[in-house]
Amino acid sequence: MSKTMLEVKGLTTKYVTRFHEDVYAVDHVSLKIEQGKSLGIAGESGCGKSTLALSLMGYYFPPLHYMSGDIIVDGKNISGMDPDDVRKNVLGTEIAYIPQAAMNALNPTRKIHKFIEDVILAHDPKANKKDIYEMAKGRFAELGLPLEALDKHAVELSGGMKQRVVIAISTILKPKVLIADEPSSALDVTSQKMVIKMLRDMMDRGFIQAMIFITHELPLLYNVTDDIMVMYAGQIVERGSAKQMVFDPVHPYSRGLMNSILVPEEGTRDVKLTAIPGTPPNLKRPPAGCRFAERCRYAQPACRYNQMPIIDFEDGRTYRCGISVPELREIYRKEDEANAAQPTEAPTDGPVRLTKGV
Amino acid sequence: MSETKAIRRDLTNAPSCLKGEGVTRYFHTGKITTKAVDHVDFDFHEGELVSIVGESGSGKTTLSKMLLGLLKETDGKIYFQGKPRDISSRAKLKEYWSGIQAIFQDPFSSFNTFNKIDTVLLDCINMRGGKHLPMEKKTEMMTEACSFVNLKFAELTNKYPFELSGGQMQRLMIARIFLLKPKILLADEPTSMIDACSRATILDMLLQLRDEIGMTVIFITHDIGLAYYISDSIYIMEHGKFVESGPADEVILNPQAPYTKRLISDVPKIHEPWDLSTVG
Predict the structure, then answer these.
(1) Which residues of A touch B165 (CB under 8 A)?
(2) Within a domain: residue B61?
(3) pTM of the model
(4) Which residues of A touch B262 (CB under 8 A)?
């Protein structure tokens, strides 16, 4: 049994709008990550992925407010801490965070090694600058980053290099948990691969003990993380291992997401691309029942009124739905059969029409 | 729930819609010359869905601007429906634009903030020569266009573009195209700012629209999986040159150029292992 690195129990946080309305962007989220494991969080824009990341690292500045729940990093409860204490005692050493546009966070007038100095001096004001420089050099060498980068300004580096440098800076103090919020979305595929390789490398060498990786690119998550968690409207709807989630999703929303995967591989074109109609609910007034019921093609009348709890149904797999797992699997199997029965080739005469479902 | 299934078609014998020979664009900054687009040849057929795939900085957007007539080419010729393209005067350029239209990456900056949505759509009707039509007829046309993209015109009228969400704006762009019925639609990364679920909706509408009015779609993207899924043929662009082109299946499943091979190997996949050792 390996050690639990991060445990979150019933975390709820809200945004307060200008008109004093409460928006529960993270609603009773519980999760657990063990040492050496990584968790991917997927979901539509606005489903609370990034808010969850901010909440996990205790970044509670208005309009974001902490409501309830525990965040335990390696046995230490950091929930409800003052944001200033969080910055001094948690960020960098316990939890590190990489935002999406991390590469734009570098001040263009300063050299890279100055940022590393900042990080270390914030935690240890007496540290010797020469030692810090040597340490930074050692770390860059271990991660395969060019040492000259330390004496350069941010503008002299390419986008992918900047992103990797930011990751190296934020993990210089060997944090226990790294939260990467879309670290590679703004990069092209080759730079993306380099960033991922570096993250993997850091996990293997123990610079970070556990990782949360947030993105809406599912093929990437599948290749990077051990587990995938799908969020919808502030709640967790399903969690399972990466393989199970991609090839055998249970929740109708996860299935919709997995059906939208497009990869340049044989067979991709034979699969129907399914769009989920509608838009996510307005969280100012969340629906009484299942939050996905409005858009769910399998929704039953009861779904709209009954609150759905999150249920364990297999070892390490959870989901949140009113329909039982065997029933859902049966529905999916029938659907797949019906899809396979349809011709894939274009008719030889007449204009080509798209197949339009319900 | 709508479902899209891209159907492959062979259109190599269809008449040429947009053709380019040695199209080139250089940018000069001081003594440095950047070859953004370097002697490219292409031939897009009528009704075809073509994708131009390349990484950032490969010259995709420069090429698309030249195709739209927004940038003058340094060298080379572009043929529109078999005849050399003539956009020497403003009037001729406007005439050309009734045949070619575009959807851009960022829906937020595609609309004039001061114009109401009604104005946006009315402009399209006027451009197609519907200026003299009675207002009821125009409203009917606008309602039809909006319902095509699952928007309700009654809810949009008297609103400004910034009151809509990103997905709604992108759909409104498609409604514009529905009214304009151009011969060619140039879509420059229309889905890169929307997430995977809404992407399917937008693609579904584009494909439907293509069948509805039989236009040629030129899809510019860096997402090779998406390009493979929807297009009939693919052009791979690197440093201003087309390194490979052909039917989608051939290019993606059996790539010849080293650049194409690298590009495909760098994309994370789900059925094949993703080899991380190829990067430094």
Answers:
(1) 279
(2) yes
(3) 0.84
(4) 190
